[in-house]
Amino acid sequence: MMANTDVRRTLADYVVPHLNMVRDDGAKVSLDKELDDGRPVVVSFIFTTCTTICPMTSQVLSMLQQKLADARADVHLVSISIDPEQDTPARLRAYAARFDAGPNWRHYTGSLRASIEAQQAFDVYRGDKSNHTPVTLVRPTAGGSWVRLEGFATPDALLTELQARQTASR
To answer: How far apart are CA 170 and CA 168, in angstroms?
Structure first.
C-alpha cells in the first residue's frame, strides 16, 4: 500500500469541544460525547467531493477496520466533514458505503461553525478545504493523550498505535 516513511508522529492533549454535530444516520449528537464513549477512537477529517487526500485516508480506515476483525466493535472510527455545506448525512452515508464503513465507523457533519471549531480543536484547520493535509488522530484509551499522525499513516501504523497504548494501560 502506502509508505509510512513521511509520517510525523507527535503526542497532544486535545480538548474535544461540546459541538452539535449530525451523524451520518441523521442523529443530532454532541461531538465530545461521541468521542468519549469509552472506546479507543481514530479521527480523520474528510469531505465527500475530495479526489486526493480524503479517498486515501478513508481507504486506510477501511483497511484498518478489516484488520481490527473481531475487535472492530471496540474501536470508534470517526470521519468529520470539513465541507458541511455540501456534506449532508445522505452524502456522508453514500461516501461511507464506498469504503464499506461498518457500524463503528461514523461520519459527521454539522454547521460550518461547528466544523471549523472541530478542526481548530485538533489543529487541522487550514482556512479552505482545498488546503487540508492528511492528519489522523488516535486516542487509544479514553481520557488519554492523542497521537497525531501527520502524513499518510498506514493501517498497520494505526493498529500499532491502538494496540501499543492499550497494552500499556492494562
So the answer is: 6
- pLDDT greater than 80 at residue 1: no
95, three cell numbers: 461516501
Measure the CA–CA gap between 153 and 77, rounded to whole angstroms.
14
> Region 123-139: what's the mean pLDDT?
92
DSSP E strands in the chain: the ranges are 8-12, 20-23, 28-30, 41-46, 76-81, 105-110, 135-139, 146-150
pLDDT in tens, 53-62: 999 999 999 9
3-state DSSP assignment of residue 121 = helix
Give yes or no for a contact between 24 and 107, defined as CB atoms under 8 angstroms apart: yes
In degrees, to the nearest 5, what angle opens at C-alpha 41 toward C-alphas 35 and 44? 90
- pLDDT score at 142: 86
Residue 163 has pLDDT above 70, yes or no: yes
The residue to which cell 492528511 is assigned: 134
Which residue reads 477512537 in cell numbers? 41
Measure the N-to-C terminal CA separation of the chain; round to a whole number of Å: 32
Q: What grid cell was written down for 145?
A: 493523550
Whether the model pTM is above 0.85: yes
d(CA 33, CA 30): 5
Here the cell at position 14 is 486535545
